[in-house]
Amino acid sequence: MHKIRRMFPGGNTSEGFFPLQTNIIGEDRNFLYILKGMPGGGKSSLMKEIAKRALKKDYTVEYHHCPSDPTSIDAVVIVELKIVIVDGTPPHSMDPTYPGITEKIVDLSKYIDEEKIKIHKEKIVRAKKNNSRSYKRAFNYFKAAKYIYKEIEMNNRRFIDYEELRVYEEDIIQEIFLKKEVEVSNSLFKIRNLFSTAYTPEGFFDYTDSLLENIENRYFLNGEIGVGKSEFLERIVEICKWKDYDIEIYYDSFMPEKIESVFIWDIDTIISSNTKTKGFKHETIDFNRFFNPVSINEADYEIFGELKDKGIEGLKGAKKNHFILEESYQPTINFKGIDKEREKIWEEILEFEQL
């Protein structure tokens, strides 16, 4: 099965920041470590080191990447042990539901030298305010892009042969659900909602390929905006609910109300409109067969792309301010203390191997 899986538990979308942190780990977890701390305080490095050690012990590890810094980690999950370490600081705040039983807070902020950090007070306050402005600017552009998307969608839908498309859909659905059922392992939820892509200060990031590996059945859902790909995937989800299958739903990172991929554990099948699917052995579901491309308004597509690019520029401004925060905090932190916290967490994780 998958040894490394990568995803995003939140996104910078046309609806603003869209959090899905509650889908990182379920209620039946063994343990949840919630890291509290400061920018540049070693949270991501701590999680990466724990993940590295877990991989060496042949566990499956999920890396939940930060949409504001895709090389950074918001959480890691050691799947077989059902243990998660998560960054619980804003904008993805998290607090324990059952403190001391299945969760605990690890406070890394206690390793800040309070006298040293006071020197940077004005710079930190200013950076936080500028950070907020940058995100607001980015989300305004993304929201404007959504209106153009809706215009493209409305225009394209006028040129679809819906009657033939519906017949084609029924045939495909029958084919998908005739797949042989398999024993489900490593599924953490009955229904799980996440992103496999993100709009970030570094541009568009796509980790879908890590989800496509080692899957028996892959379908690439091809089609222009407005031809009904997301609606088709919604039908797939409803059938899975009726069959009581375990599924993972990955949403469009720009339009979070739209589905991009559905992974069905019980029949080891993924159906995705993400183009990375084409890099693996797959079957194509081609909705463009029922669409007349003469109707495409190229100018609208260009405006849509330009507005999304403007949004990414806004995110880059947010990253600059975040870098100022990290630069201010790092010289004031006792990283030896954070290393001790990491070793303590690892020792506790090893105890779960005996259960």
List keywords for this structure.
2 domains; 355 residues; 8 helices; six-stranded mixed sheet; alpha/beta; flat; single chain
List the helices and strands and how they pair.
Elements: E1 4-7, E2 10-13, E3 16-19, E4 31-36, H1 43-56, E5 61-66, E6 69-78, E7 83-87, E8 103-107, H2 114-118, H3 121-156, H4 162-177, E9 191-194, E10 197-200, E11 203-206, H5 209-212, E12 217-222, H6 229-243, E13 247-251, E14 259-264, E15 269-272, E16 283-286, H7 298-329, H8 335-351
Parallel strand pairs: 1-5, 4-7, 4-8, 9-13, 12-15, 12-16
Antiparallel strand pairs: 2-3, 5-6, 6-7, 10-11, 13-14, 14-15
Helix pairs in contact: 1-8, 3-7
Can you give a write-up of this model?
The protein is α/β, with parallel strands linked by helices and 355 residues long. It has two domains: 131 residues, no CATH class; 131 residues, no CATH class. 39% of the residues lie in helices and 23% in strands. It is built from eight helices and 16 strands. Strands 1-5-6-7-4-8 form a six-stranded mixed β-sheet, covered by helices on one side. A six-stranded mixed β-sheet has the order 9-13-14-15-12-16, with helices on one face. Strands 2-3 form a two-stranded antiparallel ribbon. Helix 1 runs parallel beside helix 8 and helix 3 packs antiparallel against helix 7. The two termini are 22 Å apart. The model has no long low-confidence stretch (mean pLDDT 92).
